Amino acid sequence: MVNGLRRHGLALVLLICAGLGAASCSGPSLPTAAEAGPRLQQLSTDLAGALARAYPGKSWLPVQGQETRRVKNDDGTCVLTIGTLRSKDSLREVSGGWDSVMKTVNPILKEGGFPSISGTDSLKGGFTGISSTDSHGGELKISEKGATDISLQSKVSDKDCSSTLAP
Description:
By secondary structure, this protein is an alpha+beta fold. Helices cover 40% and strands 24% of the residues. Strands 1, 2, 3, 4, 5 and 6 form a six-stranded antiparallel sheet that branches. The N and C termini lie far apart (68 Å).
């Protein structure tokens, strides 16, 4: 009888562990490009607008060759990238540092469903920047090395992952 209870107990523990393992591997479901695109595009527009208002004279223009598109990354996941916006000047220098930039962008990030930024990133090759990642796989990067770029991307569930999308 004790052996029977042990076997049932062991079976129950194995089932629970298997369930927890599957749950931890599945994570949140990925949005489609149609779901993520408008939200990320709006965030890009809102960030550029807020930065232009905070630091007059800085214009944010689309980077040719870095349009909105879907591409498979190294692990085969489809990634939606929103068209990169660039200002010719150093945002960090014009603003007096990344802390000022964070104060400007954090309210916009909150409205867009992204967590606030509280520190800078360690980047290679002389670049400096800040970033934020949301719970849906969206990632914002504001980086610079002379010119400043705003880039947004998100992993998406789209099966067709090789096309340029309209902005």
